[in-house]
Each structure stands twice: as structure tokens, then as C-alpha cells.
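Tutorial handout. Part one gives the primary structure; part two gives the three-dimensional structure as C-alpha cells.
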Amino acid sequence: MWRAPTASEWAEPTLLTFERSWEDALAVAEEAQKPILVCVNMDGEIASEHYAGVRYRQPSIAALYSPYVCLIASVYRHTEKDHDANGRRILCQRFGSVTCGEHIATEVLLYKKYFDGTRVAPRHIMIELDESEVYDLYYANDTDTVFETLRTGIGDRDVGEAPTTSFTDRITAYAEHLRAEWFGDPKSNQPPASLDVWVLRKGNAQRSSLEQTFVGSTDAEQKEILSAILRNPEAEQPELLRIALAEENADHQPLIFQALTRSQTKESIAVVNQALRKAHLKEENKEALIQTLDLLGTTLPEARHLATLQRSLSFSSKEIDADGLAEHWIQREYPAKSDAEALLILAEAYLSQAVHHTNDRVLTGNQRLQSTLRQLQLQDALEQAEQAEALGAKDWRALSIQGLSLYYLKEEKASQEKILQAVRLLPEKLADWNSLATLSLFTSHRRHQLKSALKEKRNWPASWMEELQTSALQLLTHPLATEDLAVEHYDFLVQFGAYGPHSWDYLKKSLEHLGDSWELHARARTALLFSKGPQGLETFYETQTPWYAGLAHISTAEHHRKQSQFSQAKNAYKKARVSFGEAESTYQALIESGLARMEMEAGHLTESADHLFATFRLDPKAAEILDGLNVSARMTAVTLLARLEEQGEKGVAERLRAAAPFRTRIAPPDPLK
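Part two.
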């Protein structure tokens, strides 16, 4: 009834065409006068696996879905990202016609709109043109109940013809037809009439055909398609504009920016933000795009957040040490300067004693007295710093000591006020713990403020981000800075939406000052693979430490393995061998493990075994280490043993079992032999 799909069934294409969004589905349903069918699916649930791996790929069953405008809703991601380096959509491997981001966003929206607070799969919901439910079917005991409901629900409407080929093949063929229709006559100087109609279409098949036509067209033809979008104010083609942006054709840029400034849909937000992250963006284009986000932000909080963020990243604040204010306070003379200096030294001593030397041997074992002494020392530090400020020491030191003392005394609001004042007076090139702690407290509090504003959908001043960035960079260059401080700020930038040039510039500067940081290099590899691909990753690490270059080559190899690009993966592993050198036996063993997995997947069982022998010889303990694809040499060995025995390679299997530095299960003897 709910049998699991076989490998050959998963290899068949999904024949259902799902729309990209709820809004697109409504538009297509209205145009075609068809009802909407929401299909809810869940990874790992046996009935959902059966629908996704078997039923959605059968022509006879696809015909039952064809009278509907279909939407797929699933919270699980099956691809690393939704777009490649060329801006083109990466279709979900499970559902075929949408990206993972699209079916996840659909689930989130429909959960609020139609799921009645219940997440269950498989589930089929028929929705009429007026957005009312006709049926909501789940917990069905068999597929026949579902399929009969699909038949009766459609009634006497025109059924149409179900596709028999994959979505990608259909789009490729139709794009060739469109290009011939639109641009096949070289003598025609008039734009094809159907192009102006096509740019207004919102169906997934129509959008995908237009995007594929754009990709396969000449520069002049691409310009004609972009012009058609501009001629039709209601045309919304954000994914095509994303592709056009990635091509970086200077002649097309004015048309792209003009089209983006007229964007009115949620789907356009990410593309506008991508355009704002481009290097060497003209100021007038930048401001026009931010204004577009402002307009979208009247109804969409994420657009309002990004508009404020982009303004703040180019905002020039006058608050933090503008015009050498800190140096002015340090160098100025005032009557009680010597007395104030003595008080500051005493306050610093009290603070240091409270923070760094609380475990007095005399008080060992008496936690209550230790806590009391610490509180008294912090209070003394605060009072001495306040007296110094009253005598005229209005520089960062007095404010910093007050802020830090108040922080440890758990008076956070008062502490934040003093810390902010201190940060605005901090001079450059400080090397003491107080300045490090002051910057650290300020950046932590400012990040918390920004996160809270985003969570509560409140507006926030553009100066906040500028002050945070200035302080974070100053903290990065501090002699006492640690990788934790840099990692925390980089992760914040990415999570907050300031990824791209802003987060990458900070990460590069972090690596300049903290070049031996494992965590920072891990983030650099991820960022480079995402933004520049494997070639960009390897190019960047050509100038880095060979050991980290070796890790970059391994990341590149694993990236190619995911795409089944075994030749490129082998080349990357070869470079990794050279970078690590013979002394790094553990990483050499991991390289052999990766090669063993590839050879096994390619059907070269003996070669796979040879690489495993090398793994066990180089470092037996490496057999248990998971690589970037969550595969270990042990896992490969267990699978390979079974395949060798199936192929009758018992001699190789026995050698492998003997060489393995772990126990392997031996198949019981066949009683019939």
C-alpha cells in the first residue's frame, strides 16, 4: 500500500508541475479557471515517500493532478542552496519543478492559512478560485481514497493532457520554440507581440520558459526581453532579473536597475538586495533600490529591515571618535589632572582585582565572603572612577571603569549608558584589557538591540549599525582579540542579512589578524563556495597557509562529489595531497577515504578497496572520521564488503576485512550450499 520507492523509481522525473508561490498559483488558477491543489509532503514518512518517489512520477497518476493548479508544501531542504553562481534556480531533487526555498516558503504560508494548526503529511487540500476549501484530506488509509477524491473533486471540468517528460526537458524544448518564434526572423525590426504577453505570465512553466529563453539568447535578444519587461509595468520577473544581474553585462545594467525599482512583490526583495551587494554600484542606483525596499517595506517587514540595513552600512556617523575627540581629552590640561589620574589608577586596580583575582587563598572555600569582597571591590572601583570624572577626567578610562563596574554589579542599563559614552571616546591602538572589555560589551549590546528590533519588527536608527561596525573593526585589531569575538560578529552579519561584500570584507580582515583561526577559515570556505564556487575557493587559498589550502581543496572535492563530478573531485584531492604533504597522515588518509567512496559509487570496487587499504595504512583512527558528506571510511568499507561479495570478489573482501581496523559483520553461511 505504501511501499518504499526503489532507486530506479527515484531516478524517474517528477511529472507534476508545481507553482513557485501561493500568489502565482492564484494568478494561474484565475487565468486557467482551475482549482488549486495543495500537496503536503514530509521526508521519511512512508506514505509521503511513496507519493514523492512513486506516484508523482507515474503518467497515469500525474493525469489525475493535471486538472489542478498544484502547489507542493514541505519544510525539508534537499539542495544546499536555491541558485547557482549564475543566478539560475537549482530545482529540488525531490519535487522537480520548484526550488527547496519555494516549497518551504509555501508550507510556512499555507500552515497559517489552511492547516488549522496541524502539520501532517501526506495531505491534499482542494481550494477554489474564491480561496475556499473544498476538501482537506489526510490520514487516508490507502491511495485509492486519495485518487478517487481527486477525480470527484474536479467534477466535469476539462481534464487536459498530463505531461510524460520531465519539467526541465519540457522547458528546454519550449524555450527553443519561443526563441525561434520571437527572434527567428532576422529581417524583423519589431518586437514580437507575444513577448509582451509572455512577460506578464506568472505560471511556473511560463516563467521558466522565459528564463531559459533569456539564457540561450544573444545580447541583443536579451536586451529585447528586458525592454519588454520595462514596457509592461505589471510585469514581475524577479528570477530572470537575478540571472541578468549575474551575467554582469554593462549594457543591460540600466534596464535591470530600472526594472528592479518598479518591483512590487515579496519575491523581488532578495533580488533587489543582491543588486545592492554588487561592487562599484552607482550612488543614484543604490538610493533608488533602497527606496524600492522602503516602498515594499510598507507591507513587508523584511524589506523594511533590509532598507534600514543597507542605509546603515553606508551611513557615516559623527559619534565615534570623530575629529580626534579622544586624543583631545587625553592631552588636555586641567587643574586636578594629577589627582584624577591617581584615582583612575586606583579604580583600575580595584576593577582588576575584582575581575581577575577573586580566588584569594585566605578565602578559599568561602564562596559567600569571596562574593562579598568582589562586590566591595567593584563598588570601590565605581566610586573612584566617579570621583576622577568629577575632578575633570572626562575621558574614556573613567567612563569605561564605571561601565564595567556597573556591568559586573548587574546594573545593566546604567552600564550600557557609560559603555556607549566610553566607546565614543576610545582612541586607536589600545592594548589593555579594559578597552577590550569595553568594545566587547558595546558590540554585544548593540547586536542584541538590532536583533530585538528585527524580531519585534521595529525601525532602528541607521547609526546603530555604523557604530557597531566601527567598534567591531577596532576590536578586531586589538592585541587581545580572540577568534570567538570575530566569529560572533561575522555570524551576526550573515544572520542579520548583511552578507555579501560587507560580511566578506569583515571576514577577510579577521583572517589578516587571526590567520590561524580554524573557525574563521571554516566560514571562509563556506562563503567562498557559496558566492564564487569551487574555482573561487581554490583561487583565494592559493595565497594562504598550505595546510588551510589543503582543507580548501578537500572542500572543493566534496563539492564536486555532491554533483557526481568525479574527475574534478579527483583533481581537487590531488591538489590537497600536495598541500598537506606526507607528514599530515590523518588528512592523507581522509583523502584516500574520499577517493574510495567515489570509486565505489562509480562501480570500481577493486580500486575502491585499494584506497581503503591506503586509508588504514596511513592512519587507522581516520576510518571513523566523517567527511563533509557525513561519510567515513568505515561506512564505505561496510558497503563495499557487501558489494564485493555480491560480485564474487571474495579474495578482495577477505583482504579488506583483515585490513580494517574495526570489526566487520560476516554474513552467515548459506544453508542451501
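Part three, for discussion. The first strand starts at residue 36 and ends at 40. The beta strands are 36-40, 69-73, 123-127, 133-138.
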